[in-house]
Amino acid sequence: MKTEIIQSLTGDFESHARQTENGVEFWLARDIQGLLGYTDWRNFLQVVDRAKVACEMSSHPVSDHFVDANKMVTLGSGSRREVADMMLTRYACYLIAQNGDPRKEEIAFAQTYFAVQTRKLEIIEKRIRETERVSARRKLADTLHPSRPQSVKRAPGVIYEQTGSGKNFGLIRSKGDKALFGYTTEQMKRQWKVPKSRALADFAPTIVLKAKDFAAEITIFNAKVNRMQTERQISGEHITNNASVRNTLIERGIQPERLPPSEDVRKVERKLKSDEKKGLRNPKPLESK
Questions:
Q1: Does pTM top 0.85 for this prediction?
Q2: Average pLDDT, integer, range 40-65
């Protein structure tokens, strides 16, 4: 395909009015029909029907991506009437392009265009998830930092403040893990194949990190408010809070001990920093007007 054709089609697709509803981007089928080089609506609907089958085969609800709608059109006489139309997600547009006539230049272009755009969205979503997990790990580390017992915000600090010693912190944390997972920290480390020298939390999914942090924050709050002064009191509080969080997760169909481990959070953090440096290496200047 010639460069000028690619540039022209890119302009058509990029400038074409995309709309949103409840934050979801969509195109109208009659608009996409013209962009893909189909002049007859009935012929285009045959392509849409094949795309719906492909959507169903990929285990995605068809109704989530192909939504019947109506559109007002202007006739040659100048009068307007309502015609059947359809709201299409980006994924629906991709499937339509994949099921269209590849001999059409517009279809050949759209197949790549929507595949790339969909991939971009997946990359963005993946980066957001990774950033959120790194942030959750940092937050948990801030709550459960064992090296600063003088801090009144951190769990060891509260233990030190209430009991006069921070030596029982590891024991209290281990009892919390047993209440949350139903297994000891060491058992979970073996299950997730976590190196002995590494923290279990470095391989925990985001939801587990947030669950542990929530339970710890409740323990810190209640230990201070209720002036708990023994390891036994604080351990009992921490066990209760982790057990309560576990029950909430299970009620929502989530069993923390059955979740697969996530990628080493240190590797994720390094990758995010590397991607950020690459993005800043050659920043594009503003074009002069």
A1: no
A2: 91
